[in-house]
Amino acid sequence: MSVIELDNLRKTYSATPALDGFTLRVERGEIFGLAGPNGAGKTTVVECASGLRRPDSGTVRVLGLDPRTQRRALLQRIGAQLQEAALPDAIKVGEALRMYAALYDHPADWRELMDEWGLTGKRRASFGGLSGGWKQRLFIALALVGKPEVVFLDELTTGLDPAARRTTWGLIRAMRERGVTVVMVTHFMDEAEALCDRLAIVDQGRVVAQGTPRELIARGRAASLENAYLTITGQEQS
Amino acid sequence: MKGLTRVTAVELKLIMRDPMSAFFALAFPVIMLWVKLRGGNKPLPGGPATVDATVPMLCAFVIGLASLIVLPTTLAQYRERRVLRRLRVTPASPVVLFGAQWVAHMLLAVLGSGLLIAIGAFGYGLSAPADLAQVVAGWLCAALSLSAIGLLIGALVPGGRAATVLGLSLFFPMVFLSGAVIPRESLSGSMRAIGDLTPMAPAVQAIRDGWEGNPASAATLGIMVAICLVAGGVAVKAFRW
Fold this sequence. Notes:
The structure holds 2 protein chains of 2 kinds.
Chain A: E1 4-13, E2 16-26, E3 31-35, H1 42-49, E4 57-62, H2 71-75, E5 78-81, H3 93-101, H4 110-116, H5 132-144, E6 150-154, H6 162-177, E7 181-185, H7 189-195, E8 198-203, E9 206-211, H8 213-219, H9 225-232
Helix pairs in contact in A: 5-6, 8-9
Chain B: H1 2-17, H2 19-37, H3 50-80, H4 83-88, H5 94-124, H6 132-156, H7 160-177, H8 189-195, H9 200-212, H10 218-238
């Protein structure tokens, strides 16, 4: 059984289809990327899979659970960092981890987690004063505080400088090494190429291509994943 | 339960770290108490000593401030910054998340009221409340009704700034007309008539009644319960994460 099974999802926002027959399988333990132009439906997929949105039709199973009817049970077993979601500026790193841990039935030890992700030195720092890279590190730790089997990351590295992005890649790989399945939305093809075991290219609400980065490069007859992506989504510059 | 207490504790700390809300809920009412009693603790027309009327009045002021300004600002800011969306992808139920916000903001009002009572008692010879249970009941009804309105503001406005502006523009006319700052006894008849139409008036009345030993008015408490149910119901329906 796949960890995530999405079948023929449809979702329309005021006459514009966001998802139009979206079907996807994600296997346990992989880092799976979702790439595609703005408005392609990537965020809607993540929102449907994490129970924040209901598709108009189609079926969603995450860890065998239906987010529509088993939302609370599902949320005990997944972690998510949504696009642009933040914390109050005045909250301290240690307080945030401890508070989020208290929301789960069987959380990780938040002090250990803080230590493992290198946040102990920042324990008393306020969220608002953290740099982009430290914020992402905290978001990753928060996404893991419920000991999830699946983690969704929506544009985690957008707005980071190149060094912080590289560090964040290392953190995402470290998540996979713990057996966590990672689903990440990204705009950066270098990131997808470096990190993802497999990825799906999404356009106009459906998957237009999927496979390992190597397979997609071969399919686009391209020199890099970025070129393959542009070919597949028809955005190639002449 | 663990989630509720933890989120409440963190929220209360966050409120206290904001210099504006800490000043307005804790220091400002104490300054007003001092201003009111600078001229001595004379009896008001109709009986009660100034301090015995002023402390209950300012308790309603503090409840109004926490409920109508601080609470909606927090909620709207959290929506704007997507703090609520992040919390929504945890297993915590909306009841826990909103319950914690409510309790934390009401604890701010408890702290503000406690401070006024302590300073009133030690500094100005405040009498003990005539009926403590009635004071507590009045305080709670005031908190429920005004915070339901605050929740409604938080549900309707787009962001934190708009919430503060709307909260302030409801709060200040209300406290001046309803007898939370100037005792009802000193207000002109027409001002009192307007003030009686605001949801702050029954809050002031109920707490003062309990303190001064006037019998509880079923109408006053009933109005507050009704406001709580109507405003709270609309707020829950209208709320957007």
